[in-house]
Write a structure and sequence with these properties.
nine-stranded mixed beta sheet; 2 domains; D-Maltodextrin-Binding Protein, domain 2; alpha/beta; single chain; two-stranded antiparallel ribbon
Length: about 300
C-alpha cells in the first residue's frame, strides 16, 4: 500500500512539474518573424552606457547601434523597442539572458535581435566538456563593423608613440580585466607592468589622461575615437603603433538571433549588406566621428 502511495505521489509531482515547465515555456516562447510583424514591434538588445554605440543622452537612446536598430525596424515596417543590457561576466551569459532563455529575473523580456556580438566562426562553434555546442540555440550572423585596439596619447608628454615599449617610461591607462590590461602587463617580459594603471572604464582612463595622471590610454578604437571627438584637444593623438604578440588585434562585430528565427536573420543581414554597399553604414559611423572598417566578409 505504501509503495502505491509513493508511486502515485511521484506521478502527481511529475505531472505538476511538467505542467509548470510547459506553462513557463509558453510564457517565454521565442517570437517568430511573423509574430514580430503581426505585433508591429522589433525588440533589439543593446548594451547600456556603451558610447558611442548605445547610450542615453538627456534620456533619449543614442548611438551607432541604436540608429542601426532604428533603420532595421523602419525597413521592416515595425516600431523599435530597445532592451538595455547590462553585460554579464561572459558573452555567453548575455546570449542566454537576452536571446534563448531569458534572464532569471526578467523572463518576460527577451530580444528578437541582439547587436554587437563577435562574428567569429571559432567562437560560434565552441563546445563544452561534453562536446555540445555552447550556444547551440543562437545564430550569430551579419557582420557590420570591424573593431580593433587603439592607443591615444598626450603629445605634451610623449613626443611620438611608435611602439608600446615607450610605456616602460610613461604611465598608461587601461580598463580593469581587459585585453589591453593583460597584454600590457605581460608584453616585453613584463617590463611595462609597473606603468600600467587600471580604471573602471576607458572613459575613466581617458579622463585620467586629461588630468595628467597617465600619458596614454589603450582601449577599443570606437570608444577612444568618440572620447577624442568630445575632448577637442589637439594634443591628444591616435597612435599607429603595432601590438607585437597581442594575438587577435582586430575582430568583426555582428548580430545574434535565436536559432529558430533565421527568417529575421536573413532579412536583417540583407539590409546591413545593402547599407555597407551603398555607404549608409559608413555615414552612420562618421556621424559619431568614428573610423569605419568593412568586416572581413565583405573585403
Amino acid at each position: 500500500m505504501m509503495r502505491r502511495i509513493l508511486i502515485a505521489l511521484c506521478a502527481a509531482i511529475s505531472l505538476s512539474l511538467s505542467a509548470q515547465l510547459y506553462a513557463e515555456s509558453l510564457s517565454t516562447a521565442v517570437r517568430t518573424y511573423d509574430d514580430m510583424i503581426a505585433a508591429g514591434t522589433l525588440k533589439v538588445a543593446v548594451y547600456e552606457n556603451f558610447a558611442p554605440y548605445s547610450f542615453r543622452l538627456d534620456g533619449q537612446p543614442q548611438g551607432v547601434d541604436v540608429e542601426l536598430a532604428e533603420q532595421v525596424a523602419q525597413e521592416l515596417g515595425v516600431t523599435l523597442e530597445i532592451i538595455w543590457m547590462t553585460p554579464g561576466e561572459k558573452l555567453d551569459d548575455d546570449l542566454r539572458n537576452f536571446i534563448w532563455r531569458g534572464h532569471y529575473l526578467r523572463k518576460d523580456i527577451r530580444a528578437d535581435l541582439m547587436l554587437r556580438v563577435p562574428y567569429d566562426r571559432e567562437f560560434s562553434n565552441r563546445r563544452n566538456e561534453l562536446g555540445e555546442l555552447v550556444n547551440e540555440l543562437v545564430v550569430m550572423f551579419g557582420p557590420y563593423q570591424r573593431e580593433r585596439w587603439l592607443t591615444v596619447y598626450n603629445s605634451r608628454r610623449i613626443k611620438n608613440l611608435e611602439t608600446v615599449g615607450v610605456f616602460q617610461y610613461h604611465p598608461v591607462g587601461v580598463e580593469d580585466d581587459s585585453v589591453p590590461s593583460f597584454y600590457l602587463l605581460t608584453a616585453f617580459a613584463g617590463r611595462l607592468s609597473s606603468s600600467v594603471k587600471h580604471f573602471v572604464s576607458p572613459t575613466a582612463a581617458f579622463a585620467a589622461m586629461q588630468e595628467g595622471k597617465v600619458d596614454a590610454v589603450m582601449a577599443m578604437r570606437g570608444e577612444l575615437e568618440w572620447l577624442l571627438s568630445q575632448a577637442k584637444d589637439e594634443a591628444l593623438k591616435k597612435s599607429d603603433a603595432a601590438y607585437p604578440n597581442l594575438g587577435q588585434a582586430t575582430w568583426d562585430v555582428g548580430m545574434a538571433v535565436h536559432e529558430s528565427n533565421r527568417q529575421l536573420a536573413y532579412a536583417v543581414e540583407a539590409l546591413t549588406e545593402a547599407m555597407i554597399a551603398d555607404g549608409r553604414m559608413q555615414a552612420l559611423y562618421a556621424k559619431y566621428h568614428l573610423s569605419y572598417e568593412v568586416p572581413g566578409l565583405y573585403q
